[in-house]
Automatic annotation (TrEMBL):
The keyword Signal is annotated on this UniProt entry: yes
InterPro entries, sorted: MdtP/NodT-like, OMP_efflux
PANTHER family named among the record's database cross-references: BLR4455 PROTEIN (PTHR30203:SF33), OUTER MEMBRANE CATION EFFLUX PROTEIN (PTHR30203)
Main location: membrane
Origin organism lineage: Bacteria, Pseudomonadati, Pseudomonadota, Alphaproteobacteria, Sphingomonadales
Protein name: Efflux transporter outer membrane subunit
Top-level taxon in the UniProt lineage: Bacteria
Membrane topology: Lipid-anchor
Protein keywords: Lipoprotein, Membrane, Palmitate, Signal, Transmembrane, Transmembrane beta strand
Length: 466
């Protein structure tokens, strides 16, 4: 057999060897087969759900929010670090895969020998060969490569999970900014209303039909509203700071929301099916499964260490007294050597490496199962909120409407002189709290839809429409 033919067949010989890794069996999901429904939960439709097929541009329909999310996906530093880790994992996998192939080194030498007659003889030698190339008879190298490949896939799924989390985090921060803007506007409107009330009470007191107590009470109410405005202005500035940190760069005013409104910046419904198998498609669950598969390959590599290793050393080259005709001289030299090595005693290191690999496999199983349980809990929590939030908003809307009616009636009674000032003041406080509570409820609904979208694995696929 020619030497180059031998080198060409070495990878095939390695691949023809045994594989001592145990056969992978996917653990059963330690959660109910169906997502919760009924009672506090919404009624779910049977059949397959494809929330993870809903692109974020289809779910978040506000153009300004879409622009901020796109900025975050391009500029967020945590995501950049995650992408770099994916590239590192890919490179390490390729390093391990390279061990399946021989490393060929080339060298050249020149020697000059002066004879007794003073004549100098030149000798040229060009050689190439491989040193201690291991024939992978028992799959050790293949399993090490497979383990690195599964680790790379796990890292890539981690990248997807990070992107999904970033989309959700950006949307929630943007919606929180919108809700804070609403809360600030309500506080500012309350300040304007209470300032007018104070002016009325000052005129009444000056005309002798009011009291200093009413003036002091109206002033206290105004000061309280002014303090709330100051706090909401601070919160709005801090909300913008938080959003810009997530986005990775300063944001223009025109991409910031001015109001949350009814939360129509995103879809109000998602295709949520009854089966919990959708959780197995979440990137974090897939990442945990790839990590688990890597431990199976590690066991195969650890088992292979109990068996002898076969290594080959090959060398071929040309020698000539003249450099110009070295490859035509016919002075071709080749050697092939093989060596078999078997570990006799290592103080139990090989056995304990195998035991450690099996323990790592058991830990990875537990981590995989725990990841599924966490995913189920996150979806269940989001569904529990989804099942009751509409009822809460209806109640808050009714409360606001009735509080507004009560305030108008009490103010009319005070203006007519049939009620003291405490009656409309108390009604105004109730209305203020009702309006702020409605804003909070609407934010809760919007944030819940974002969380449900994230928990079901949505966030990456983009719509082709722009």
């Amino acid at each position: 057999m020619k030497l180059r033919t031998l080198f060409a067949t070495l990878p095939a010989l390695a691949l023809a060897g045994c594989n001592l890794a145990p056969k992978y069996v996917q653990p059963a999901a330690p959660v109910p087969q169906a997502l919760p429904q009924g009672g506090s939960y919404p009624v779910l439709a049977a059949g397959d759900a494809a929330t993870d097929a809903v692109g974020w541009r289809d779910f978040f329909v506000d153009a300004r929010l879409q622009q901020v999310i796109a900025t975050a996906l391009a500029e967020n530093r945590n995501l950049r670090a995650t992408l770099a880790n994916v590239e590192r994992a890919r490179a390490l996998y390729r390093v391990n895969r390279a061990a399946l192939f021989p490393i060929v080194n080339a060298s050249g030498t020149l020697s000059a020998v002066q004879g007794t007659a003073g004549r100098v003889t030149d000798n040229f030698l060009v050689q190439a060969g491989t040193s201690a190339y291991e024939i992978d008879l028992w799959g050790r190298l293949r399993n090490q490569s497979q383990s690195a490949f599964e680790s790379y896939l796990a890292t890539d799924e981690g990248r997807k999970a990070t992107q999904i989390a970033l989309v959700a985090e950006t949307a929630t921060a943007w919606l929180s900014y919108a809700a804070t803007a609403d809360a600030l506007r309500i506080a500012e409107e309350t300040v304007a209303s209470r300032r007018k009330t104070l002016d009325v009470n000052l005129r009444r007191e000056a005309n002798g039909i009011g009291t200093k107590l009413e003036v002091a009470t109206a002033t206290t109410a105004l000061n309280s509203a002014e303090a709330a405005v100051a706090e909401f202005r601070t919160s709005l500035a801090q909300s913008r700071n938080a959003l810009e940190l997530i986005a990775g760069k300063p944001l223009a005013d025109d991409v910031l929301p001015t109001t949350l409104g009814t939360g129509d910046q995103l879809r109000d419904a998602l295709p949520v099916g009854l089966s919990s198998e959708v959780l197995l498609r979440r990137p974090d669950v897939l990442a945990a499964e790839h990590d688990l598969k890597a431990t199976y390959a590690d066991i195969g590599a650890a088992r292979a260490a109990f068996f002898p290793t076969l290594s080959l050393t090959g060398l071929f080259g040309f020698a000539s007294a003249g450099l110009t005709n070295i490859f035509n001289s016919g002075e071709f030299q080749k050697t092939v050597n093989g060596s078999l090595r078997q570990r006799i005693f290592d103080g139990g290191a090989t056995a304990n490496n195998l035991a450690a690999a099996k323990a790592s496999r058991d830990a990875a199983v537990a981590t995989y199962e725990r990841t599924i349980q966490t995913a189920f809990r996150e979806v269940a929590d989001a569904l529990a909120r989804r099942g009751t939030i509409d009822e809460s908003i209806r109640a808050q809307s009714s409360l606001e409407a009735n509080a507004a009616t009560a305030y108008r009636i009490s103010q009319s009674r005070y203006d007519a002189g049939v009620a003291n000032y405490l009656e409309p003041l108390d009604a105004q406080r109730t209305l203020y709290n009702a309006r702020q509570s409605l804003v909070s409820a609407r934010l809760t609904k919007a944030a819940n839809m974002v969380e449900l979208y994230r928990a079901l694995g949505g966030g990456l696929v983009e719509s082709t429409a722009r």
